Amino acid sequence: MGADPLGIHSDHPPALRGALNLSHVVLSAPVAVTAHPTPFASVTGTPLDESVLTRPATVRMTSVPGVDAAHLVLTDTDLADCLFSGAFHLDQLRLEGRTTLASTPTGWHHRGVWPVRWTRRRTLAEEHHWRAQAAEQHTPSASTPASSRQWRTGPHHPDPALTPDSQDVAALYRRLRKAFEDGKNEPGAADFHYGECAATTHPAARKASATCCGRTGCSPDPACAPPAPPDGSSPPCPSPCCS
Q1: 239 in the Ramachandran plot: left (φ > 0), alpha (ψ -120 to 50) or beta?
Q2: Counting Cβ atoms within 10 Å, is residue 93 exposed (0-12), middle (13-18) or buried (19+)?
């Protein structure tokens, strides 16, 4: 893999391990990033120490703003913390192999008097940052570490001016969903469609006068509702507050 001041070009797909930040990198030609399946070895053949890695040894993409994603292919990459805001042509990004994404918070929560839980699905880091901002969560510290029961705060938390809002998140899901569809990853595409709908309907869902399934404060967009089951029964509510 070669690099110059104007960008990156690749004669062979680079096989990497660890974190990779491509912020504002100019790709002068199509580049494929692939996770190296085994630890790298020294010139003597001894495996290199990977104890400094904070995640399982794979390629962990952290940021791609300013990148033309039409030239990028990601294979077997960890995108759980990747920031996509500001990238171009995200609908042309190619995701292949095992793509790891963040999940929704675990456990049961209370919304008013109702016990609710988040539907398990793949999510973008930007959705975590937006929902943590909307919920006015505290920034994790040594005394209050991050919990899997909460959304993860972003790098600019709690500044609303620098944190994506619901419309930003919906647009990201809309563009990246096509990457899953083109890769024939239907479960991933379905999760991103759900994420787009959840972000789009979030402002309406906060209105106390709206109702859905008999629960105050839940109002999904009808355009995002799933089709009715063949038996004629009512389709499930697609809003996260009923999940």
Answers
A1: beta
A2: buried
Q: How many CB atoms lie within 10 A of CB 122?
A: 22
From the list 238, 153, 156, 228, the residue with the least C-alpha distance to 190 is: 238
pTM score > 0.90 for this model? no
Region class of 136: left (phi > 0), else alpha (psi between -120 and 50), else beta: left
Mean pLDDT, 10 residues at a time, the chain of 243 residues: 41 65 89 76 70 65 94 92 96 91 92 88 96 92 86 94 94 94 90 94 50 42 48 50 42
| Cβ neighbours of 145 (radius 10 Å) | 7
Q: Is 81 helix (H, G, I), strand (E, B) or coil?
A: coil
Among residues 84, 78, 87, which one has the least CA distance to residue 26? 87
Residues 6+ apart with CB under 8 A from 23: 63, 64, 65, 66, 67
CA torsion sign for 159, 164, 166, 168 is positive
CB 58 within 8 A of CB 101: no
Amino acid letter, 98 = R
